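Example (one chain per record):
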Amino acid sequence: MSEQDDGGTPPARIDGHLVAGGKYHDIDYARSRLLDLLAEHPQVRMTVSTDYEAIDTVTGGSFLVSYTCDTRPSEEAQTAVADWVAGGGRWLALHGTNSALDLGGPNGVESPRCFPRWAALVGSQFVAHPPIHAYPVEVTDSSHWLVEGIETFETDDELYVMEYPDEAALVPLLHTMWEGEATGFAESDWSDPDGPTRHLVQYLRSYGEGEVLYNSLGHVRGHWDMAPLVDYYPRIERGAWDKDAYIELLRRGIRWAMGQNA
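Predicted structure:
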């Protein structure tokens, strides 16, 4: 039975926006999966764009979902999204939303610190990741409903190592422990003589009257997503998308974005 035909008062319409765009990922796959999950709530009406520049549309609803990579908002768009969140908006930010990448440099992939305001709003900036490998994702705060009951799960997603402009302002929800070499990136040395260090996978970040919920998981790539750097990428990568725990985290994140608190 759907949320609107249970015999009670129909739920109020909720408007949201999805930004799904960028480079080096199968954006079509991520967009489709996210829209399927959003469609589980028939009262939700979504608009969709590939970047943040249609400002009135992007900030026109009560919540925002983003799945991007190397999508660098203009200063105007950054200001508009920051003001919207500060005014009470909820933003579910996924995977490369916090990334800026310059490929082809002599030292490997660079992560330019080109949007400090954006990084401060999201709560982090992507810097590098080691080669894709299986790693455990652990719950940091099992009392929070967004992760309550989620067991440690293993995924072969990209393990993001990030900078946090104000880590004390974040509420950590999921993390992984790792140290080593982020091969192929200019900032490659993440070794620690004391052993693995904590890297956040999901956190909440309050901003004014609103909040951002960020999750670094969700890498996905098909054969044609590295063009023009590579005409045909040999592997299909689905990251955490085939993990029940990740889909449950997304479902909870969507409910949170819609304004629910449990």
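Caption: The CA atoms of residues 9 and 113 lie 49 Å apart.
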